[in-house]
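Hello again, I could really use a second opinion on something today. Take your time with it, there's no hurry, and the full record follows here:

___
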Amino acid sequence: MEFTENEISKIVFESGLQIHKILGPGLLESAYEECLYFDLVNAGLKVEKQKSLPLIYKEIKLDAGYRVDFLIENKVIIEIKSIDALHPIHTAQVLTYLKLSSCKLALLINFNVSLFKDGVKRLVLGAL
């Protein structure tokens, strides 16, 4: 089955919401990452964990150590945090990931919030 970016985004959000309801805030990022991975794979999505993104500089591909938490269906990037607050540097990081990939949509998710929706930032590069 072929999923659109928006369908993937909806599945990720609903799964994240469920995880947050069950576990609450305050756990390590890795705990949320494992739970989300489990849910997304069970939803039938192709999920690559800790996917390396090459940096292209002057037509040379460099391994600069950029890794996205999840690349889903080669369409959507997910970056997971469990921190006090998201800062502009986190948004800049994810926008860089979008520029280095062929993806147009990313979700930056901070699980360390009281209300899950307040911890989700949707970033779009170009038109979906």
